[in-house]
């Protein structure tokens, strides 16, 4: 049998646009004959994944899980994108997302790069995702990834409708006591999309920008200069209440904050993450 070299695979991929695994299989079947391999690819109707890569993949699902770990529990969530919700809601696509997540967990992945590099049954997650374009007939990609750890991790997966897979996943890590209100906090994260856990977590440059905008706005409104600092602080506090989880008003009882919920049970929130389909920073990529 002729050797199936990387150069040979690259040549056929470039000439057909087919995925790596499809090219390998075709070359193996053709005993290394490039022309025959190309015929096999055409005969089987293998989609040209490369031609799809310019298409937007902003639909999809989010797979998530919690596993026991040395320090308590670890929560994982991964977004897998497709072009349409028609594909996203198929059991095969949902199962594929679960497989990608399982491979990421097994590899103890920490970020998108380590997810894509994670070993899979056929090679790597990156190769599997490339091959998925032929399987689903659409551009498929890994979007966002999150991993949090703590004594306890709670996950809430939100569906926009019963027939669609989860489109928002909220995860929160707490101590043991905090786990009593973790579900309520996860619901809050899903609904209100906080950006930071505490005000100390807000980057200094963002605080400074908000302070400057509030100052300029107050002066433009004709407020007396001597009371502008007080108005600015009020507007900064409003910014924190909107964007900081522990300072947000609890949606089920606005008379208390999420921070109050944790105080009532003597617990702590340690970290959180929120993924929403199509909201990755480079969602069009």
UniProtKB/TrEMBL annotation:
<feature type="region of interest" description="Involved in Mg(2+) ion dislocation from EF-Tu">
    <location>
        <begin position="84"/>
        <end position="87"/>
    </location>
</feature>
<dbReference type="InterPro" id="IPR018101">
    <property type="entry name" value="Transl_elong_Ts_CS"/>
</dbReference>
<keyword id="KW-0963">Cytoplasm</keyword>
<protein>
    <recommendedName>
        <fullName>Elongation factor Ts</fullName>
    </recommendedName>
</protein>
<comment type="similarity">
    <text>Belongs to the EF-Ts family.</text>
</comment>
<dbReference type="InterPro" id="IPR001816">
    <property type="entry name" value="Transl_elong_EFTs/EF1B"/>
</dbReference>
<feature type="domain" description="Translation elongation factor EFTs/EF1B dimerisation">
    <location>
        <begin position="76"/>
        <end position="279"/>
    </location>
</feature>
<comment type="function">
    <text>Associates with the EF-Tu.GDP complex and induces the exchange of GDP to GTP. It remains bound to the aminoacyl-tRNA.EF-Tu.GTP complex up to the GTP hydrolysis stage on the ribosome.</text>
</comment>
<dbReference type="Pfam" id="PF00889">
    <property type="entry name" value="EF_TS"/>
</dbReference>
<dbReference type="GO" id="GO:0005737">
    <property type="term" value="C:cytoplasm"/>
</dbReference>
<dbReference type="InterPro" id="IPR014039">
    <property type="entry name" value="Transl_elong_EFTs/EF1B_dimer"/>
</dbReference>
<keyword id="KW-0251">Elongation factor</keyword>
<keyword id="KW-0648">Protein biosynthesis</keyword>
<dbReference type="InterPro" id="IPR009060">
    <property type="entry name" value="UBA-like_sf"/>
</dbReference>
<dbReference type="GO" id="GO:0003746">
    <property type="term" value="F:translation elongation factor activity"/>
</dbReference>
<dbReference type="InterPro" id="IPR036402">
    <property type="entry name" value="EF-Ts_dimer_sf"/>
</dbReference>
């Amino acid at each position: 049998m002729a050797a199936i070299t990387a150069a040979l695979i690259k040549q056929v991929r470039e000439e057909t646009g087919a995925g790596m695994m499809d090219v390998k299989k075709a070359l193996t079947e053709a005993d290394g004959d490039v022309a025959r391999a190309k015929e096999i690819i055409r005969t089987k109707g293998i989609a040209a994944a490369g031609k799809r890569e310019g298409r937007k993949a902003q639909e999809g699902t989010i797979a998530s899980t919690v596993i026991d770990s040395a320090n308590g529990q670890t929560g994982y969530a991964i977004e897998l994108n497709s072009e349409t919700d028609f594909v996203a809601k198929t059991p095969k696509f949902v199962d594929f997302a679960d497989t990608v997540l399982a491979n990421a967990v097994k590899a103890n992945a920490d970020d998108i790069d380590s997810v894509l590099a994670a070993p899979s049954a056929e090679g790597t997650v990156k190769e599997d995702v490339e091959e998925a374009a032929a399987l689903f007939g659409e551009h498929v990609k890994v979007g966002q990834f999150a991993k949090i750890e703590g004594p306890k991790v709670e996950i809430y997966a939100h569906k926009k409708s019963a027939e669609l897979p989860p489109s928002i996943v909220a995860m929160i890590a707490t101590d043991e006591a905090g786990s009593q209100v973790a579900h309520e906090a996860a619901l809050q994260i899903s609904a209100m999309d906080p950006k930071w856990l505490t005000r100390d977590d807000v980057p200094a440059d963002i605080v400074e920008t908000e302070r400057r905008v509030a100052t300029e706005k107050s002066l433009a409104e004709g407020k007396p200069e001597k009371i502008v600092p007080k108005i600015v602080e009020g507007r900064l506090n409003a910014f924190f209440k909107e964007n900081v989880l522990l300072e947000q008003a609890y949606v089920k009882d606005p008379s208390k904050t999420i921070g109050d919920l944790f105080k009532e049970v003597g617990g702590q929130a340690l970290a959180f993450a929120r993924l929403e389909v199509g909201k990755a920073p480079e969602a069009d990529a």
